[in-house]
Amino acid sequence: MTRRLMRRLAAAIDRVGRGRVTPDMVTLGGAALHVPIAVLIALGHLIPAAVLLAVTLPLDVLDGELARLQGRAGVRGMLLDATSDRLSEAVIYCGIAYWLDVTGHSAVWAVMACGAALSVSYIKAKGEAALATAGMDHDSMNRLFQVGVASLTNRKRVLVVGLLIGQVWPATVVVVLLSLLTVRQRWVAITRHLSRL
């Protein structure tokens, strides 16, 4: 979904909620949705799980747009968002691990997907710390960290498609491979930039 659409949705939510719907509520509500999604996956209800997971996609952008609109954007909100994203993703992979085991596939793939996905975020966090220490501004870091195909949104999209077509194991393998590729891409981008400083 486009940022412009999310800005409009944030404005509508702010207007209807008279400013009482906070970005933290959107972040935590989106995170809470991942528990029933994981349960649905574990129980083999893949289509409803896919629909709910698709619903969380715009929430990953909406909380930030609402924060900017309400003048609440800041480091605390970014930390809450990043933390809830990692926990939400780990919950999803628990449901996938159970489903894979029940269907005769190795749950190790879900563990690998979770680890690889968390590594994408970890290298971003460590890279930001290293580059901030080296004096790089936040906007430049954001552009640098657009590198890689396996953003959280794209990982979720892969899982949504896999759930919709009943191909959870292949989707999980794709998440592993794309996440590892993204870690490599970000490693190269960060180390290349650091070598220039």
TrEMBL record:
Transmembrane parts of this sequence: 25-55, 158-183
Gene Ontology terms, MF aspect: transferase activity
Keywords noted in UniProt: Membrane, Transferase, Transmembrane, Transmembrane helix
One Pfam family it belongs to: CDP-OH_P_transf
Record carries keyword Transmembrane helix: yes
Major enzyme class: transferase
E.C. numbers: 2.7.8.-
Superkingdom of source: Bacteria
InterPro entries: CDP-OH_P_trans (IPR000462), CDP-OH_PTrfase_TM_dom (IPR043130), CDP_ALCOHOL_P_TRANSF_CS (IPR048254)
Family that this chain belongs to: Belongs to the CDP-alcohol phosphatidyltransferase class-I family.
Protein name, per record: CDP-alcohol phosphatidyltransferase family protein
The organism of origin for this protein: Sphaerisporangium aureirubrum
Organismal lineage: Bacteria, Bacillati, Actinomycetota, Actinomycetes, Streptosporangiales
